[in-house]
Amino acid sequence: MYDVTGLHYYNARYYDDHIGQFVSPDSLVPDPSSLIAWNRFAYAADNPLRFNDPTGHCVFDTGFGGGPSACGSGAIGIGLAYAAQGIGSATTIVAATANNLAAQAAPVLQQADKLAGMDAWIQSNPNGGQQAQQGSSGNSGNTGDPGGFDPNDPWKSFRNSGMVQEGIDYLQKAARRGSVNLEKAYNQYNDLTRKGVEMGGHALEQAQQDKISTQKIADTFTGAARNTQYFWQGGNAVQWSPHTNVALIIDKSTRLVTTVFTRSSVQKDWLPMSAFEKLQWLGE
Q1: Which of 50, 57, 237, 274 is the most buried (most CB within 10 A)?
Q2: Closest by alpha carbon to 248, among 166, 257, 256?
Q3: Where do the structural domains in the chain lie, given as residue ranges?
Q4: Are 175 and 182 in contact (CB under 8 A)?
Q5: pLDDT-derived band of residue 135, with 50, 70 and 90 as boundaries?
Q6: Rounded CA gap, 84 and 50, in Å?
Q7: Is the pLDDT confidence value at 29 over 80?
Q8: Is the dihedral of CA 143, 149, 155, 160 positive or negative?
Q9: Residue pLDDT, tens place only, 46-87
């Protein structure tokens, strides 16, 4: 019906018969499987000769079939509209439509539950699961090989492998960003540890992103790579080889590899170590 605005008021929204559309978008997409339903300004599915829209949320078929069309996520609107027309049970309509939606949404919700579970674990364990006994060599709850990667508690796996807490904290943030595969990072961390290379969380993330192999990192770190060169940068050591094209930024005091990246030439801000500094660095 008209009101003082000169528009038709349909309880949910105003309709302008001059332009043949509602003046505001629908708050829902009545039927996601219908292309016209995605035009949330449309009236009666753009077919007023066959449909009407008494609620502003769900179209009614005025032909021989009678009743509303399928309204997808507008299950509540369908039920209320039916009840208003005195046709059937609103509860029955809502239940039937909701069951259909639940079946369609199940795979999406299942994946969302997995992601939510991981995020919930991270949020409830901001210190990487330090509530677990520190230094424990046991593997309680580990679904992988003994001492291996536990997808149910990846941070315990890293901690048991000897990763410093700062590295675990970084990997937690990287996992939230989706920028690191934790199992691959765990395997590379342990492979490098066996080769005498201690990697930080940031370096593990970079190695994955740049697809830098464990062997290239180890050869550059140990000096096994041909023409390995040694520099200083901002108080940290830099090791680089034109053979591997890999550069490592190494903490001077802890010998932790904090950054790794591909590099085909010497960076301008790298200061070459003197012969004596190189001997000291290598412990010779």
Answers
A1: 57
A2: 257
A3: 8-99, 210-284
A4: yes
A5: very low
A6: 19
A7: no
A8: positive
A9: 787 777 777 767 777 776 555 555 454 444 444 444 444 444
